[in-house]
TrEMBL record:
This is Endonuclease. It comes from Streptomyces racemochromogenes. Keywords: Endonuclease, Hydrolase, Nuclease, Signal. Pfam families: Endonuclease_1. Residues 1-27 form the signal peptide. InterPro entries: Endonuclease-I, His-Me_finger_sf. Transmembrane segments: none annotated. GO terms for molecular function: endonuclease activity. Residues 150-175 are annotated as: Disordered.
Amino acid sequence: MRISRTAPWAAGLAAAALFLIPATATAGPQRTAATPRAAAAATTVDDYYAPAAGKTGAALKSALHDIIKNQSTVTYDGVWNALKVTDQDPANPNNVILVYSGRSQSKNSNGGGVNDWNREHVWAKSHGDFGTVTGPGTDLHHLRPEDVTVNSTRGNKDFDMGGSPVAEAPGSYTDADSFEPRDAVKGDVARMLLYMAVRYEGGDGFPDLEMNDRVNNGTAPLFGRISLLKQWNQMDPPDAFEKRRNQVIFDTYQHNRNPFIDHPEWVNSIW
């Protein structure tokens, strides 16, 4: 039975920071043959999103999809090393920060052991059954390091409020059909899921990922609950760690961006 709680979020929505982007992004280890639009042309975030300027609703979602689908890819094996860079602890370059646990842990303790960290698909790969093939299965914008046991506890549950405390993930809760992450990453989780719903629209041989307002979505290419995720986006705006991560993915690996980190206000414009 779900136990309702009231989270002590800080109110308000912080404005997204403007990053300067090099005209030619640093080549990542898994570049595709085609040069992504961002690396070829954009010099600022505004330039990158220029085709979306002035749009709202479905038109904005379509424009953002056309922008961010231009990306390089990383293999699933390559994700291990990429996460050691994207999720590096700002206070200790030898460690990564685990997304739900919030724990700083050695980069080299990745694997399948009980106290290791592994690759958490925030959009659970069973929601659409896309596995770990290149595409949504290896997209760094929703892959994060997490404790093996906590990853297993989260499983493929949708996101909601309440439940019992999760061991090794202080501030996180779970019940039979949902998982609630700690307050400090509630907005991060929301923006990762919403990125996936815009990036993967049924092209490229991948499923059309969409949001709904339910839990228990099973293997359908759906994730919920959108009404709650919208609240989390507002109450936990992008912080320095999330912004840096977005920039590193753009500069070094995929050469595309999560638009909801740069413009969190676009969430309410689309959903």
